[in-house]
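Trying the structure run again after the queue cleared.
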Amino acid sequence: MRPTNLFYILIATSFVISSCVNNQTVPEIPAELFFKKPKAANIQISPDGNHIAFLSPWKNRLNLFVTDVERRDTTQLSFQTGRDISTYFWINKDELIYVRDNNGDENFYLTVVDKETNNERELLKEEGVKTGIIDILRKDPNNLIIGQNKRDPQIFDPYLLNIKTGNVKLLADNPGFITGWLANHLGSIKLAIANNGVDKTLFYRETDSSSFTPIFETSYDQNLVPLLFTGDNDRIYAKSNIGRDTEAIVIYNLSTNKEEKVLFEHSKYDTDDITYSFSRNTITGIVYKDHKLNVEILDDQTEELFEELRSLIPEENFFIISQSLDEQKMIIQTHSDVNPGVYYYFNNLTGELVLLSESAPWLNQELLSSMKPITYKAKDGLEIDGYLTLPKNRKRNLPAIIIPHGGPWDRDEWGFNSEVQFFANRGYAVLQMNFRGSTGYGTRFLEASFKQWGQSMQEDIDAGAEWLVEKGIANENQIAIHGASYGGYAALMGVINSPQLYQCAVSMSGITDINSWIASFPPYWKPYLEFVHKSVGNPSLPADSVMLARNSPINNITWIERPVMLAHGTKDPRVAKTETDRFVNSLRNAGVQVEYLIKENEGHGFQNEENVIEFYQEAAQFLQSCTDSGK
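Done. C-alpha cells:
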C-alpha cells in the first residue's frame, strides 16, 4: 500500500458536479461520501516537534500513521481491521499510545507503538477491566497515571504505569466513593473527588505519603469542578457555579477554601474548559459555547500568536489542537458548518504555515447547507436554542427531520455534521435543539428537566417541530423524528405522544424501558446513581417507578401507529440490545410497521464504516417512504 503523504497539498479533489449551484437543485451526494472515514483526523505533533501523527483509513478502519516533518515521508504504525482507533497520544518523542476495546464493549486497554520499529506492546488488557487516562505526565517520557477498575468494577484506583515494563504502582487507595483524581504539575496526585452527581466532596493531601482529608463539600447546584493546578501547584483552576446560575472559570485557593478570583463568567452559558501554556505555566484562554464555540484569550503572547494566524489562515474558525513541548510547532484545525476540517502545520519560529490535509476533500462545500442558530419558545415559555439546516436553495414547505441529541446531558453545537448534511442534501429541513436538561445552560435550565423524560423535555422537542410549521418552513404532513441513545428514546416518545406531528421515527440504541435501563447500568456508572435518581427517577420509589413506566416506550405499544425503524449493536454496554429486541417483538405482535437493523460488531451506536453507511442508506429510504419526500 502506498502510504498517505500528509504534506500533500490538496488541489481540486472535491466531489464536484457543478461549479455553480445557485438557484439550482443540488445533486444527491452518495451516502458513502458523507460517512466514509476522513482522509485525516486527530492530528498530533510529537513532543520534540519533529513528527506528526494522524489517523487515516486502512481497510475502512482508522489507523495510526506518522510523518517525518523534515523528510515528509509517512509510515503506517497500526493495522487494525476490527475497530477504528479514535483515541491516541504521544507519550514521548518516539512512542505513541492508542486506546482500544473489544467491538464497542468500552472495556478499554492500551497499546504502545514505537514510530521507528513499529513494535507494539499491549498493556492492561484484561477481561471486564476498563482503563482510563488520568494524566499523561508531559515531562515524563516513560510513565503516565491511569485509572483502572480491576479491584472493584464500580470504582477506579490510580496507578503509575511504566510503559517500558508494563509495571503499575498504586498511587492511592480508593475507599469506594472516589470518582476522580487530579495530579499537580509535578505528577503528584493531590486532589480526590467523591461525586454521586448530586453531592460532591473534595479531598486534599499535602504529600504523597499523607492521607486525603476533606476540604470542601458541595452539591450540583453549588458546584466546583477542578480542572488544573495553577503553575505554583498551590491553587486550582476550576469551574464553579457557587453563588451563580452558570459555571464560571475561577482560581480556587485550597488553603482558604475560597474562590480567589473569577477569570470569566457568562450570564446564560456555562464555561467549558481552559487553554493552558505548560511551557510558561500560565492560563491562556477560556473555552465556552454560546451558539458557537468561543475562546476568550487571556494573555498578550497568545493574542499575538492568534493575530499572526488570522493573517495567514483563510478560514474564520480555527483552533490550536496540538503543540510541541516548547509550544513553537503546532497543529491548527479549521472548521465551519460546511467545512469538515482542514489541518495546518505552523512553525512559530520561522512563520512557516503548511496545509496538511482536508478531512473530506471529496465533499464540495458549495453543495452543502449552512447551519443557522435559532431560538424558539417552549410550551411554558422557556427559551430553547437550536440549529436549523435547510436544503440548498429551498426554504419553505419542506419535509423535515427533528433530531434531538443523546445524553440527555449533552448539547448540540454549531459546526459540520455529516448526518445533518446528509439529510439536508436529500431535501429535508433539519432541526436540532438543546431542550431543557442539555448541558451548558446553567443550573436552572438543568433542574427544569428533572423527572421530565417524556414530558416537558419531550414538549420542548415538539415545540421545535411546531415552530417549523408556524414559520412555513416545514410541511406539517411530512415531519419525522430521529435520534440516538436518549435521542432514540425521544424519537419513540415523539410518535407515542404526538402522532399528529410525526409521520415516523428512527431510533438508534434508544432506551425503551427506563426502569430496566437504570437497573442495568454498567458497574462504573453506579457511583452516579444518586444523580440519575434525582434527575430521571428512582425505580425503588413507587411513585417514580410508575412515572418512569408510564413514560417508557415499551409500555406504550398500543399508542404507536406510525412506522418505526430501530438499530442496535449487540455489544452495547449502556442500553441492552435485549430491551430493543423485546420492544421490536411487541411492535410486531401489535401489527406496527417496524424495521430493525442489528450489528454484531457494534456497541452503543455504529462506528464501523460499512455499518454506518448501511444504516443511513436504509434510514433515508425509510424516511422517504413515510414522509413522501422524494426530491
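The radius of gyration is 25 Å. Worth checking whether this holds up in the mutant runs.
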